Write a sequence for this structure.
C-alpha cells in the first residue's frame, strides 16, 4: 500500500512537471486563436506600454472617451467598449526597453489584440525607436499639420526620423531653468530678483565669477558633477554618433573643464544626480546656490526635497518652501519628456490617432492639465496665455510666474543633434569622468575608460574622436 | 517462479529511470542546450544595433581575439583580488571558529545560537546586502557620520570613490556573507576526525597550537580543498555585490569590474557573440577547477596515510 502510494505520488509530480512545461509552450497559441476572430474590425483591446503611471493617470483623468477604470487600474474601459490594457515595466537599468524590444520583435507574429498599440519613449533613446520600422508615421494615422501646429518645434524634432517622418507626439515640453535659493542670492549678490540674478548669471564667465563669490561666503555654487551637464550636452554642434564613430563635442569637454575647476576649487559638493546627498543639498540644510532643473523637476522633485517635513503642508514655513526662484541661467536646455508612439501593426489606428489628438493637440485639455497638475504642456498658445497672466503665480517660487520663463526658454531649445546613442553616451561620459573629477584617474585614462565602455555596449562603434 | 522474479527486478529498474527522467529533461532543456548554443554563438558576430539584429555571421575566433585585447585579463585580475580580500580573512576566521566550537575542552555555551547568527548574513540577498552597504558607506552615510562624531575623521571619507575603499567593501561583504557557511563546513570536517586522536595528543602533552596544526589541519585537508575550490568558482562568478555597490560601473577606474560584470556589459546590446566568448572561457576555467576538486576528493591516499602514521605513533 505504502509503496503504491509513493509511486503514485512520484508519478503525479512527474506529470505535473510535464504539464507545466507544456503549458509554457501552449499559452501563446491559445491567445492566437482568440484574437483571430476579431481581426476584421478594429481591435477590442488597446495595449499601452509605459514605465510609470504618469501617462496612465493623465489618460484616465483627461481622455474624453474614458468610461470606467478598473479597481486595480490595470485596465481602462472606453465608452465604445474598447478595453485599454496597461503594461507597466519600471525603467530601472534597461528593464523597460529590454521588455519592449522583445515584444516589438515579436509584434508581427502576435495576435491582433496582443499587439502593442501605443508605447511611450523618452528623449535619450527616442531615435532607437523612431528610426526603426516599429513606429508608425503619425500623419499617416490621421494627425494633420494643423493639429500639430501649436506644439513646440523641438518636441517634434526629437521624434522625426532620418527621412523627415514624424513618428511620435508629446503632451509636455520640458524646458530647463536655473532654480536658485533666494536667501543665498541675497547674501551673495545682494538681490533675489530673478531679472537681476539672471543678469549676473547670463553667461558661463559670469556664472563662474558668481561661483567664486558664493564660495567666499561659504556656499557651493552647484551640488555635484552632473548638475550642469544638460546645459552643455543640449548645445552641441553635432550628434554623438555619425556613421560608426563617436565624436565628443567640444561643448562636452567644456563641461569637463568647468566641472573639474569647480571641484578643485570646492565650488561643488561632489555629489551625483539622484544620490541622497544631492537631494539633501536641495533641502533646508543645503548650502547650494542653485540647481539646473526642467519643468517636472521644479514642481515635483525640488519642491519635495525642499520640505523639512515631507508629510506636512506644502506652504511657506515648511523647510525652505518659497525660498527658491527661477531664472534662465547661462544656456538654454531641456531635460526629460515623454513621447507617445504608435506601434507598427496596431489594430486600433483610429483610436490611437484620437488619443494622440486629444491628449497632445487639444488646447483645452492641455490648458486644463497645466492648471490642475502644474505640468508644462506642449501648446505654445495656451502656455503663452498662462505665462502672460498676472494672476498666475507659484507659491513655491515665492510668487513668481515661472510659466512665463518656461515659455521663453522652450522656444530656444534646438534638438536637431540627437542620435540613437544618446542614452549610453550621456550616462557613460558622466560615469567615466566622475573618476577624473574625484582625482582617481587622469584625463587620458578617463577618456580611455569612456571609449572601452562605449565599444562594449555598442559593438558597431569603431572609434571615438576627441576634440583638440 | 524464477521467471517472475526476473520481471519484478526489471520493472523496478524501469521506475528508477522514470523518477530521474524529469531532472534529465529539465537539465537538457534549461542547461545543456543553452550551453551548446553559448559555445556555438561565441564564434559568431551576433548583436542588436538599436532594434536591428546584426548577424549571426560566422567570424571564427575574432570574438576571442577581441576579448584578449579588451582587457579581459584586467577584469580577471580585479575578480581575483576582490575574491582574495574576502577569502583570506574568511578562511582564517572560519578555521579559528571551527576549532573553538568543536574543542571539547572549551565547552562554549550557546553553540547553536552562534552557528545561526554567523550563518545569518548568508540568508540576506546579495543585492539587498550591497544596497545596505551602499547606504551605510555613502559620503553622508551613518559610518562617516559616526567616524566624524567620534573625532576619528574630520571630513567624510569617500569610500566608494577610492579603489581600495570599494574593493575592500566588496571583499568585506563577501567575507561576512560566506564565513558562516565555511565555518559550518569546517566544523563538520573537524567533528569527523576520530576523537581518539585528540585524546591521544592530549595524553602525549600536545599544546592546543600543536593539536591544531599537526592534527586538525592535516585531517581536514580534503574539505579545505573543497572549500577553496568552491569559493574560487563562486568568486569567479562574483557579480551582484560589485554591480549594485558601484551602480554597474565597476568604478572607480573600472577597478571593481568583475568578469561577469564585463559579460553583462556585452548584454546591453544583446551581443551574444562576445558574451558567449566570455562565458566559454569562464566555463573552461571553472571546469578545470571542478576537475581539480574531483581528483583531490577521490585521491584520499594522503589522508589514510596520515591516519596510519598517527596510529602507528600512538602505538
Amino acid at each position: 500500500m505504502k509503496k503504491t502510494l509513493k509511486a503514485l505520488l512520484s508519478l503525479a509530480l512527474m506529470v505535473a512537471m510535464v504539464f507545466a512545461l507544456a503549458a509554457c509552450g501552449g499559452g501563446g497559441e491559445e491567445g492566437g486563436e482568440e484574437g483571430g476572430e476579431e481581426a476584421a474590425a478594429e481591435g477590442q483591446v488597446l495595449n499601452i506600454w509605459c514605465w510609470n503611471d504618469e501617462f496612465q493617470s493623465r489618460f484616465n483623468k483627461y481622455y474624453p472617451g474614458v468610461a470606467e477604470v478598473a479597481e486595480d487600474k490595470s485596465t481602462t474601459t472606453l465608452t465604445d467598449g474598447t478595453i485599454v490594457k496597461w503594461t507597466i515595466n519600471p525603467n530601472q537599468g534597461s528593464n523597460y526597453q529590454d521588455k519592449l524590444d522583445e515584444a516589438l520583435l515579436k509584434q508581427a507574429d502576435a495576435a491582433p489584440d496582443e499587439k502593442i498599440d501605443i508605447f511611450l519613449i523618452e528623449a535619450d533613446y527616442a531615435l532607437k525607436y523612431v528610426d526603426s520600422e516599429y513606429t508608425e508615421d503619425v500623419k499617416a494615422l490621421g494627425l494633420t499639420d494643423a493639429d500639430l501646429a501649436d506644439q513646440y518645434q523641438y518636441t517634434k524634432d526629437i521624434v522625426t526620423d532620418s527621412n523627415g517622418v514624424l513618428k511620435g507626439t508629446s503632451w509636455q515640453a520640458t524646458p530647463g531653468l536655473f532654480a536658485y535659493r533666494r536667501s543665498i542670492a541675497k547674501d551673495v549678490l545682494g538681490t533675489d530678483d530673478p531679472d537681476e540674478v539672471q543678469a549676473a548669471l547670463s553667461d558661463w564667465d559670469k556664472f563662474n565669477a558668481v561661483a567664486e563669490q558664493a564660495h567666499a561666503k561659504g556656499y557651493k555654487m552647484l551640488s555635484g558633477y552632473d548638475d550642469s551637464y544638460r546645459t552643455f550636452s543640449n548645445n552641441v554642434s553635432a550628434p554623438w554618433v555619425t556613421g560608426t564613430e563617436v565624436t565628443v563635442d567640444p561643448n562636452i569637454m567644456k563641461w569637463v573643464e568647468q566641472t573639474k575647476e569647480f571641484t578643485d576649487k570646492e565650488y561643488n559638493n561632489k555629489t551625483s544626480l539622484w544620490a541622497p546627498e544631492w537631494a539633501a543639498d536641495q533641502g533646508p540644510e543645503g548650502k547650494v546656490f542653485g540647481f539646473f532643473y526642467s519643468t517636472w523637476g521644479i514642481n515635483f522633485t525640488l519642491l519635495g526635497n525642499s520640505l523639512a517635513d515631507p508629510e506636512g503642508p506644502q506652504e511657506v514655513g515648511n523647510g525652505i518652501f518659497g525660498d527658491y526662484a527661477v531664472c534662465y541661467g547661462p544656456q538654454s536646455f531641456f531635460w526629460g519628456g515623454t513621447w507617445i508612439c504608435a506601434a507598427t501593426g496596431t489594430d486600433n489606428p483610429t483610436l490611437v490617432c484620437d488619443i494622440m489628438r486629444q491628449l497632445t493637440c487639444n488646447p483645452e485639455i492641455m490648458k486644463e492639465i497645466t492648471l490642475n497638475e502644474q505640468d508644462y504642456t506642449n501648446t505654445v498658445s495656451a502656455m503663452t496665455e498662462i505665462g502672460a497672466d498676472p494672476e498666475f503665480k507659484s507659491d513655491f517660487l515665492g510668487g513668481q510666474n515661472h510659466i512665463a520663463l518656461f515659455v521663453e526658454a522652450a522656444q530656444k531649445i534646438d534638438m536637431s543633434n540627437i542620435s540613437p546613442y544618446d542614452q549610453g553616451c550621456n550616462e557613460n561620459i558622466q560615469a567615466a569622468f566622475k573618476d577624473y573629477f574625484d582625482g582617481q584617474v587622469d584625463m587620458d585614462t578617463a577618456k580611455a575608460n569612456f571609449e572601452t565602455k562605449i565599444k562594449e555596449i555598442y559593438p558597431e562603434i569603431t572609434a571615438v574622436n576627441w576634440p583638440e | 517462479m524464477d521467471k517472475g522474479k526476473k520481471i519484478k527486478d526489471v520493472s523496478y529498474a524501469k521506475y528508477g529511470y522514470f523518477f530521474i527522467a524529469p531532472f534529465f529533461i529539465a537539465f537538457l532543456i534549461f542547461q545543456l542546450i543553452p550551453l551548446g548554443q553559448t559555445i556555438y554563438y561565441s564564434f559568431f558576430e551576433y548583436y542588436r544595433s538599436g532594434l536591428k539584429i546584426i548577424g549571426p555571421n560566422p567570424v571564427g575566433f575574432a570574438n576571442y581575439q577581441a576579448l584578449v585585447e579588451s582587457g579581459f585579463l584586467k577584469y580577471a585580475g580585479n575578480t581575483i583580488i576582490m575574491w582574495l580580500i574576502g577569502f583570506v580573512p574568511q578562511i582564517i576566521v572560519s578555521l579559528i571558529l571551527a576549532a573553538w566550537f568543536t574543542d571539547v575542552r572549551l565547552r562554549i555555551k550557546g553553540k547553536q545560537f552562534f552557528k545561526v547568527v554567523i550563518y545569518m548574513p548568508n540568508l540576506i540577498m546579495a543585492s539587498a546586502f550591497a544596497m545596505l552597504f551602499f547606504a551605510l558607506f555613502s559620503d553622508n552615510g551613518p559610518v562617516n557620520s559616526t567616524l566624524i562624531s567620534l573625532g576619528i575623521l574630520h571630513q567624510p571619507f569617500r569610500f566608494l570613490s577610492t579603489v581600495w575603499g570599494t574593493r575592500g567593501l566588496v571583499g568585506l561583504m563577501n567575507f561576512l556573507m560566506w564565513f558562516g557557511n565555511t565555518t559550518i563546513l569546517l566544523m563538520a570536517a573537524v567533528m569527523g576526525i576520530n576523537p581518539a586522536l585528540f585524546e591521544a595528543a592530549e595524553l602525549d602533552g600536545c599544546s592546543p597550537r600543536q593539536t591544531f596544526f599537526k592534527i586538525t589541519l592535516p585531517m581536514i585537508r580534503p574539505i579545505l580543498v573543497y572549500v577553496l575550490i568552491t569559493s574560487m568558482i563562486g568568486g569567479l562568478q562574483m557579480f551582484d555585490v560589485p554591480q549594485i555597490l558601484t551602480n554597474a560601473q565597476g568604478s572607480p577606474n573600472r577597478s571593481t569590474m568583475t568578469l561577469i560584470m564585463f559579460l553583462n556589459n556585452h548584454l546591453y546590446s544583446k551581443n551574444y557573440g562576445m558574451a558567449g566568448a566570455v562565458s566559454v572561457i569562464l566555463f573552461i576555467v571553472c571546469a578545470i577547477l571542478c576537475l581539480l576538486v574531483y581528483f583531490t576528493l577521490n585521491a584520499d591516499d594522503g589522508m589514510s596515510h596520515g591516519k596510519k602514521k598517527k596510529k602507528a605513533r600512538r602505538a
